[in-house]
Amino acid sequence: MNTVVLLALTGLGLAALYFLVASGLSLVFGLADVLNFAHGLFLGVGAYATWWAAGNLPGAGSDGLGFVVAVAFGVLAGALVAVLVELVLIRPLYSRTIEQVLVTVGLSLAGVALLQATWGADPRPFPRPDWSRDVTAVLGAQVPNAGLLLIVAAVVVLGALLAFLRWTRYGLIIRAGVENREMVTALGIDVRKAFTLVFAIGGAAAALAGALGGVYFGTVSPGQGGSLLIFAFIVVVIGGMGSVVGSAYAAVAVGLLQQFVNYYGTSGLGDLCVVGLLAVVLLLRPQGLAGKVAHA
Protein backbone atom coordinates (compact mmCIF):
# COMPACT_ATOMS: atom_id res chain seq x y z
CA MET A 1 0.00 0.00 0.00
CA ASN A 2 2.81 2.40 0.89
CA THR A 3 4.44 1.73 -2.46
CA VAL A 4 1.22 2.45 -4.36
CA VAL A 5 0.73 5.74 -2.51
CA LEU A 6 4.34 6.76 -3.15
CA LEU A 7 4.13 5.88 -6.85
CA ALA A 8 0.79 7.70 -7.20
CA LEU A 9 2.04 10.91 -5.59
CA THR A 10 5.40 10.92 -7.37
CA GLY A 11 3.52 10.22 -10.60
CA LEU A 12 1.26 13.20 -9.88
CA GLY A 13 4.36 15.31 -9.24
CA LEU A 14 5.72 14.35 -12.65
CA ALA A 15 2.28 15.01 -14.15
CA ALA A 16 2.29 18.47 -12.57
CA LEU A 17 5.61 19.23 -14.24
CA TYR A 18 4.28 18.09 -17.61
CA PHE A 19 1.13 20.17 -17.16
CA LEU A 20 3.04 23.37 -16.39
CA VAL A 21 4.89 22.99 -19.70
CA ALA A 22 1.91 21.73 -21.70
CA SER A 23 -0.65 24.33 -20.60
CA GLY A 24 1.13 27.15 -22.44
CA LEU A 25 1.74 24.97 -25.48
CA SER A 26 -1.94 24.09 -25.65
CA LEU A 27 -3.12 27.70 -25.41
CA VAL A 28 -0.61 28.92 -28.00
CA PHE A 29 -1.62 26.27 -30.51
CA GLY A 30 -5.32 26.61 -29.78
CA LEU A 31 -5.40 30.39 -30.29
CA ALA A 32 -2.47 31.22 -32.57
CA ASP A 33 -2.24 27.87 -34.42
CA VAL A 34 1.51 27.81 -33.73
CA LEU A 35 3.45 24.62 -33.00
CA ASN A 36 6.12 26.23 -30.84
CA PHE A 37 9.10 23.87 -30.72
CA ALA A 38 11.05 26.60 -28.91
CA HIS A 39 8.79 26.30 -25.86
CA GLY A 40 11.49 24.30 -24.09
CA LEU A 41 13.74 27.35 -24.34
CA PHE A 42 11.38 29.26 -22.04
CA LEU A 43 11.72 26.45 -19.51
CA GLY A 44 15.52 26.59 -19.75
CA VAL A 45 15.55 30.38 -19.39
CA GLY A 46 13.35 30.16 -16.30
CA ALA A 47 15.52 27.47 -14.72
CA TYR A 48 18.83 29.24 -15.36
CA ALA A 49 17.44 32.67 -14.44
CA THR A 50 16.23 31.26 -11.11
CA TRP A 51 19.58 29.54 -10.57
CA TRP A 52 21.44 32.78 -11.32
CA ALA A 53 19.13 34.96 -9.21
CA ALA A 54 19.45 32.72 -6.16
CA GLY A 55 23.16 33.46 -6.00
CA ASN A 56 23.44 36.96 -7.42
CA LEU A 57 20.19 38.96 -7.18
CA PRO A 58 19.84 41.11 -4.05
CA GLY A 59 17.05 39.78 -1.90
CA ALA A 60 17.00 36.40 -3.64
CA GLY A 61 18.34 33.17 -2.23
CA SER A 62 17.82 29.43 -1.91
CA ASP A 63 15.46 29.45 1.06
CA GLY A 64 12.40 31.22 2.39
CA LEU A 65 11.31 34.49 0.79
CA GLY A 66 14.61 34.66 -1.11
CA PHE A 67 13.69 31.52 -3.02
CA VAL A 68 10.29 33.00 -3.91
CA VAL A 69 12.07 36.10 -5.25
CA ALA A 70 14.45 33.93 -7.31
CA VAL A 71 11.57 31.94 -8.80
CA ALA A 72 9.63 35.13 -9.56
CA PHE A 73 12.69 36.47 -11.37
CA GLY A 74 12.91 33.25 -13.41
CA VAL A 75 9.21 33.35 -14.30
CA LEU A 76 9.50 36.98 -15.39
CA ALA A 77 12.55 36.17 -17.53
CA GLY A 78 10.70 33.30 -19.23
CA ALA A 79 7.66 35.48 -19.93
CA LEU A 80 9.81 38.30 -21.39
CA VAL A 81 11.69 35.90 -23.67
CA ALA A 82 8.38 34.41 -24.84
CA VAL A 83 6.99 37.88 -25.66
CA LEU A 84 10.18 38.77 -27.53
CA VAL A 85 10.01 35.55 -29.55
CA GLU A 86 6.38 36.18 -30.46
CA LEU A 87 6.91 39.79 -31.50
CA VAL A 88 10.14 39.32 -33.45
CA LEU A 89 10.00 35.80 -34.89
CA ILE A 90 6.47 34.40 -34.76
CA ARG A 91 4.27 37.39 -35.58
CA PRO A 92 5.62 37.81 -39.15
CA LEU A 93 5.00 34.09 -39.77
CA TYR A 94 1.36 33.60 -38.76
CA SER A 95 -0.43 31.40 -41.34
CA ARG A 96 2.95 30.12 -42.56
CA THR A 97 3.16 26.79 -40.76
CA ILE A 98 6.32 25.40 -42.35
CA GLU A 99 8.29 28.58 -41.67
CA GLN A 100 7.02 28.59 -38.07
CA VAL A 101 8.27 25.05 -37.51
CA LEU A 102 11.66 25.79 -39.05
CA VAL A 103 12.13 28.99 -37.04
CA THR A 104 11.05 27.50 -33.70
CA VAL A 105 13.13 24.34 -34.18
CA GLY A 106 16.14 26.49 -35.10
CA LEU A 107 15.53 28.75 -32.11
CA SER A 108 15.31 25.74 -29.82
CA LEU A 109 18.67 24.43 -31.01
CA ALA A 110 20.23 27.88 -30.84
CA GLY A 111 18.85 28.41 -27.34
CA VAL A 112 20.40 25.19 -26.04
CA ALA A 113 23.72 26.14 -27.66
CA LEU A 114 23.56 29.61 -26.07
CA LEU A 115 22.88 28.15 -22.62
CA GLN A 116 25.77 25.72 -23.07
CA ALA A 117 28.11 28.49 -24.20
CA THR A 118 27.13 30.67 -21.25
CA TRP A 119 27.01 28.18 -18.37
CA GLY A 120 28.53 25.01 -19.78
CA ALA A 121 27.04 21.70 -20.88
CA ASP A 122 27.35 19.93 -17.52
CA PRO A 123 24.41 19.87 -15.10
CA ARG A 124 24.74 22.38 -12.27
CA PRO A 125 23.45 21.87 -8.72
CA PHE A 126 20.22 23.78 -8.28
CA PRO A 127 19.75 25.97 -5.18
CA ARG A 128 16.93 24.29 -3.29
CA PRO A 129 15.22 25.20 -0.02
CA ASP A 130 16.21 22.84 2.79
CA TRP A 131 12.62 21.71 3.31
CA SER A 132 12.37 20.58 -0.34
CA ARG A 133 15.02 17.94 0.34
CA ASP A 134 12.90 16.37 3.08
CA VAL A 135 9.96 13.99 2.86
CA THR A 136 6.43 14.10 4.23
CA ALA A 137 4.50 11.08 5.49
CA VAL A 138 1.30 10.56 3.49
CA LEU A 139 -0.75 7.44 4.32
CA GLY A 140 2.40 5.75 5.52
CA ALA A 141 4.48 6.64 2.44
CA GLN A 142 7.47 8.98 2.62
CA VAL A 143 6.81 11.41 -0.25
CA PRO A 144 9.48 13.92 -1.38
CA ASN A 145 8.43 17.49 -0.67
CA ALA A 146 9.67 18.61 -4.10
CA GLY A 147 6.98 16.49 -5.76
CA LEU A 148 4.30 17.85 -3.45
CA LEU A 149 5.45 21.38 -4.29
CA LEU A 150 4.97 20.66 -7.99
CA ILE A 151 1.46 19.31 -7.38
CA VAL A 152 0.43 22.40 -5.41
CA ALA A 153 1.94 24.72 -8.03
CA ALA A 154 0.14 22.94 -10.89
CA VAL A 155 -3.21 23.09 -9.08
CA VAL A 156 -2.73 26.82 -8.42
CA VAL A 157 -1.74 27.49 -12.06
CA LEU A 158 -4.70 25.45 -13.36
CA GLY A 159 -7.12 27.36 -11.14
CA ALA A 160 -5.58 30.71 -12.12
CA LEU A 161 -5.75 29.89 -15.83
CA LEU A 162 -9.37 28.76 -15.64
CA ALA A 163 -10.34 31.88 -13.67
CA PHE A 164 -8.50 34.09 -16.16
CA LEU A 165 -10.15 32.42 -19.16
CA ARG A 166 -13.63 32.57 -17.63
CA TRP A 167 -13.81 35.92 -15.89
CA THR A 168 -11.50 38.38 -17.67
CA ARG A 169 -11.98 40.24 -20.95
CA TYR A 170 -8.82 38.90 -22.53
CA GLY A 171 -9.62 35.46 -21.22
CA LEU A 172 -12.96 35.56 -23.03
CA ILE A 173 -11.20 36.77 -26.20
CA ILE A 174 -8.74 33.87 -25.96
CA ARG A 175 -11.53 31.34 -25.43
CA ALA A 176 -13.48 32.77 -28.36
CA GLY A 177 -10.35 32.83 -30.50
CA VAL A 178 -9.67 29.17 -29.78
CA GLU A 179 -13.21 28.34 -30.90
CA ASN A 180 -13.35 30.61 -33.96
CA ARG A 181 -10.49 33.00 -34.60
CA GLU A 182 -11.97 34.33 -37.85
CA MET A 183 -15.20 35.35 -36.11
CA VAL A 184 -13.30 37.22 -33.38
CA THR A 185 -11.31 39.10 -36.02
CA ALA A 186 -14.50 39.90 -37.95
CA LEU A 187 -15.91 41.53 -34.81
CA GLY A 188 -13.10 44.05 -34.90
CA ILE A 189 -11.10 42.61 -32.01
CA ASP A 190 -7.32 42.76 -32.40
CA VAL A 191 -6.32 39.19 -31.62
CA ARG A 192 -2.62 40.01 -32.00
CA LYS A 193 -2.55 41.39 -28.46
CA ALA A 194 -4.17 38.18 -27.28
CA PHE A 195 -1.49 36.20 -29.15
CA THR A 196 1.26 38.09 -27.31
CA LEU A 197 -0.51 37.64 -23.97
CA VAL A 198 -0.89 33.90 -24.55
CA PHE A 199 2.82 33.59 -25.36
CA ALA A 200 3.63 35.49 -22.15
CA ILE A 201 1.40 33.20 -20.09
CA GLY A 202 2.87 30.11 -21.73
CA GLY A 203 6.41 31.37 -21.22
CA ALA A 204 5.73 32.14 -17.56
CA ALA A 205 4.23 28.68 -16.94
CA ALA A 206 7.15 26.98 -18.70
CA ALA A 207 9.65 29.08 -16.74
CA LEU A 208 7.90 28.09 -13.50
CA ALA A 209 8.22 24.47 -14.60
CA GLY A 210 11.93 25.06 -15.16
CA ALA A 211 12.43 26.57 -11.71
CA LEU A 212 10.42 23.93 -9.85
CA GLY A 213 11.85 21.21 -12.09
CA GLY A 214 15.27 22.27 -10.86
CA VAL A 215 14.05 21.73 -7.29
CA TYR A 216 12.56 18.35 -8.29
CA PHE A 217 15.62 17.02 -10.13
CA GLY A 218 18.22 18.83 -8.04
CA THR A 219 20.15 20.04 -11.09
CA VAL A 220 19.71 22.25 -14.13
CA SER A 221 21.14 21.56 -17.59
CA PRO A 222 20.80 23.14 -21.07
CA GLY A 223 18.95 20.17 -22.58
CA GLN A 224 16.42 19.76 -19.78
CA GLY A 225 13.74 21.76 -21.56
CA GLY A 226 13.97 19.69 -24.75
CA SER A 227 13.47 16.37 -22.96
CA LEU A 228 10.43 17.64 -21.04
CA LEU A 229 9.00 19.26 -24.19
CA ILE A 230 8.60 15.85 -25.86
CA PHE A 231 6.25 14.63 -23.15
CA ALA A 232 4.53 18.01 -23.00
CA PHE A 233 3.64 17.70 -26.70
CA ILE A 234 2.29 14.20 -26.05
CA VAL A 235 0.17 15.59 -23.21
CA VAL A 236 -1.19 18.37 -25.43
CA VAL A 237 -2.16 15.96 -28.21
CA ILE A 238 -3.77 13.47 -25.83
CA GLY A 239 -5.62 16.20 -23.95
CA GLY A 240 -6.81 18.04 -27.04
CA MET A 241 -5.25 21.06 -28.71
CA GLY A 242 -6.33 24.27 -27.02
CA SER A 243 -7.83 22.63 -23.92
CA VAL A 244 -6.15 23.47 -20.61
CA VAL A 245 -8.38 21.05 -18.71
CA GLY A 246 -7.66 18.35 -21.29
CA SER A 247 -3.93 18.92 -20.78
CA ALA A 248 -4.42 18.45 -17.03
CA TYR A 249 -6.26 15.14 -17.55
CA ALA A 250 -3.65 13.93 -20.01
CA ALA A 251 -0.74 14.97 -17.79
CA VAL A 252 -2.15 12.92 -14.91
CA ALA A 253 -2.61 9.90 -17.18
CA VAL A 254 0.91 10.19 -18.61
CA GLY A 255 2.62 10.80 -15.26
CA LEU A 256 0.90 7.91 -13.47
CA LEU A 257 1.39 5.53 -16.40
CA GLN A 258 5.11 6.31 -16.53
CA GLN A 259 5.68 5.88 -12.82
CA PHE A 260 3.76 2.63 -12.36
CA VAL A 261 5.00 0.92 -15.52
CA ASN A 262 8.62 1.93 -14.95
CA TYR A 263 8.43 0.58 -11.38
CA TYR A 264 6.60 -2.69 -12.00
CA GLY A 265 8.10 -3.25 -15.45
CA THR A 266 11.54 -2.51 -16.83
CA SER A 267 13.19 0.89 -16.95
CA GLY A 268 12.03 2.84 -20.01
CA LEU A 269 8.94 0.71 -20.56
CA GLY A 270 6.79 3.49 -19.12
CA ASP A 271 7.94 5.87 -21.83
CA LEU A 272 7.05 3.30 -24.46
CA CYS A 273 3.60 2.85 -22.94
CA VAL A 274 3.06 6.62 -23.07
CA VAL A 275 3.77 6.56 -26.81
CA GLY A 276 1.36 3.63 -27.09
CA LEU A 277 -1.32 5.65 -25.27
CA LEU A 278 -0.75 8.51 -27.70
CA ALA A 279 -1.23 6.14 -30.64
CA VAL A 280 -4.46 4.74 -29.17
CA VAL A 281 -5.89 8.22 -28.59
CA LEU A 282 -4.98 9.33 -32.11
CA LEU A 283 -6.68 6.25 -33.56
CA LEU A 284 -9.84 6.30 -31.45
CA ARG A 285 -10.26 9.98 -30.64
CA PRO A 286 -8.02 12.14 -32.85
CA GLN A 287 -9.31 15.40 -31.35
CA GLY A 288 -8.01 14.38 -27.92
CA LEU A 289 -9.75 13.71 -24.61
CA ALA A 290 -11.25 17.19 -24.27
CA GLY A 291 -10.96 18.36 -27.86
CA LYS A 292 -13.88 19.03 -30.15
CA VAL A 293 -14.53 17.36 -33.47
CA ALA A 294 -13.68 19.62 -36.38
CA HIS A 295 -16.56 20.08 -38.82
CA ALA A 296 -16.01 20.75 -42.48
Which structural class do the helices and strands define?
mainly alpha
Rounded mean pLDDT score:
86
Q: What is the global morphology?
A: globular
Number of strands: 4
Strand fraction band? under 5%
Element order: H for helix, E for strand: HHHHEEEHHHHEHHH
- N-to-C span: 50 Å
Helical residue percent band: over 70%
Oligomer: single chain
Please work out how many helical segments DSSP would assign. 11
Largest sheet: 2 strands, antiparallel
Which runs of at least 5 residues are low in confidence (pLDDT < 50)? none
Can you list the strand order of the major beta sheet?
1-4
CA-atom Rg in angstroms: 19 Å
Present the secondary structure layout.
Elements: H1 2-32, H2 39-56, H3 64-90, H4 97-119, E1 124-125, E2 135-138, E3 141-144, H5 145-167, H6 169-179, H7 181-186, H8 191-217, E4 219-220, H9 224-239, H10 244-264, H11 269-284
Antiparallel strand pairs: 1-4, 2-3
Membrane topology: Multi-pass membrane protein
Pfam families: BPD_transp_2
Transmembrane segments: 6-27, 34-53, 65-89, 101-121, 141-165, 194-217, 229-256, 263-284
List keywords for this structure.
BCAA_transport_permease, two-stranded antiparallel ribbon, 296 residues, globular, mainly alpha
Quick structural overview:
With 296 residues, the protein is mainly alpha-helical. It has helices spanning 2-32, 39-56, 64-90, 97-119, 145-167, 169-179, 181-186, 191-217, 224-239, 244-264, 269-284; strands spanning 124-125, 135-138, 141-144, 219-220. Helix content is 74%, strand content 4%.
